[in-house]
Amino acid sequence: MPAVSFEHIVKRYGTVTVLDDLNLAIEDGDFLVLLGPSGCGKTTLLNLLAGLLEVSDGRIMIGERDVTELDPKDRGLAMVFQSYALYPTKTVRGNLKFGLAASKLPAEEVERRIAWVAKMLQIEPLLDRKPAQLSGGQRQRVAIGRAIIKKVDVFLFDEPLSNLDAKLRTEMRLEIKKLHDELKSTVVYVTHDQIEAMTMATKIAVMDGGVIQQFGTPDEVYEQPANLFVAGFIGAPAMNMRSATLAVKGSKVAAVFQSGARLDVSDYPFQAPAKDGLPVVIGMRPEHFTLGEAASDGTAQFSPPVLSAERTGSDATLYLTFEDEMLALRVAPDLAAGLRVGSTVPVQFQAGKANLFDAQTGRRI
Amino acid sequence: MSQVSVSERAAAAGEVPVTRAPYFVRRKKGITPRSIAVLVFLTICALFFCVPLYVVVVTSFKTMDQIREGAIFTLPHIWTLEAWDHAWNHACSGIKCDGLKVGFWNSVSILFPSLILSISLAMVTGFALALWNVRWAGGFLFLLFICAFVPFQIIMYPLIVMTTTTKIYGTLWAVAVIHAVLAMPVLTLIFRNYYKDIPTEIMSAAMMDSGSFWRIFFEIIVPMSGNILIVVLILQITNIWNDYLIGVTFGGLTGQPMTVNLANLITISTGTTNYAHNMAAALLTAIPPLVVYFLVGKLFVQGVTAGAIKG
Known about the structure:
A: 2 domains; 35% strand; transmembrane helix (chain B); MetI-like (chain B); ABC transporter permease subunit (chain B); membrane (chain B)
């Protein structure tokens, strides 16, 4: 029984179609992250679910109810907004109380819930302050509190952490994750930040151009990207992409780069039998390279010149020139320190970790 | 000289002498021809308003005998409140001689219903037009915009007919309602533009939390309207209090506001003109808006300059 499902959703603004025949089902208790670049339609989809926008066509189900025509307050949802959207003239207590405005609960139950939320989010000392007297992180807590006080089954988050500084963002990320585990509710979370997506989600829907490019667990999306867009969008530094053609000889399959270098990809789990001469794009994650010479089977060996090295704290990124383009490698910082720009360095790639895409369709093969 | 001795002493004490970077002393402001010109100009401007005011004030405290002497700038020989008393209690407007107090209370009873009616209606309409999903909102807004530019004189006669058929013509209610109706377009536009600046996410949150038009209006929107309310209040109080044409047209004989009384009193054409009475009457009429300015003037400036609503 899916908690939320979108069925054949179409959204048009005038003549512009933003979403076209979109289908998505979220299981009960899932933490779904809608991930994509700005303008990909992820916030539109969330607002359609919230009822703040009307669908042009299609159906939205929450549990077994068809909520397509319902008012936002009747859908049984709670939402946390990017700018927190606290009511500036109300105190924290007033904000929390107004969260229950539509529920017509008895006053003592309202008080009990305010106490419960304040305790859970540690905002008890702030209850009588106005939003203007709170810091960004505190406002964020109140905004979350105003949502969870409703005790609904589905929570919506619209880029809730993007206004916080890096340290607070990490803290709140953990906290939201913890809340999800405690409340066991379904969450739909919109973000363009892939780290938030990878760390919090149980399911990720990667969106681009109003289309869901891939829907799966964070591991699936990262390890087996369905197409070139997902492969390039997820991961930092981004996956290295190179054009090549397949060469099939008996049971051996190799990818031949433009420079003539070969990569044995016989172990790659092809979805259909590999075709000889098929132009492909090979995607190589920066962390699947190793430095040094160790000729074991299934690894490819190159010796490209060093372009530059960047240290990012716990690890370093090494940039090499390969096939006239930049190749990013994740290496241990002490290894990167010893390399001179312009010198060549032997590099191996674990061929089993390669991602192969059809160069024409962009799809995984 | 002293500079040298300081560095010598510093050197003697084994310190490194500090040479200060040259800095420029801000020039003392002297009296320049330019500032004199500005001062003279400002003084003339001030006198332009102050001299007549002075004459009006001192005249209102003089006896008629002194006024006949003609020296308008002299202070009263005998300070008397006779003129003020007369203007307030006994001045004649037409055939009735009950003084300005009749008009004053008329004006007050026009002002309050009119304020409440116009501001509450304009607030709700502005809120609906700005933040609620209203069908034809754009067209309605355009209509309001046009209405704001229709001169009162053009619709005066139809309004007289309408108030006559509803049997309120010639009463205070007619004046109050007409004031409220005429102010609606501009006030609605003011409120609508102010509410347009409320962040959409706050409205979205309110829609998800409550979804009730009136609840959102009273609990969220009205508390956020403080600044603009002050502005509109001052605008309306001044407008309504100082109006003459609407009062004289719709007030009939019993519903005349203070301004109409004042005009009747001053434009009297028989007998000798009692300047002291006229001055006192004029001042009495001008006092209420002044009081409002003094009380809320500071808030008014804040309201006009307040742009954003921050959470």
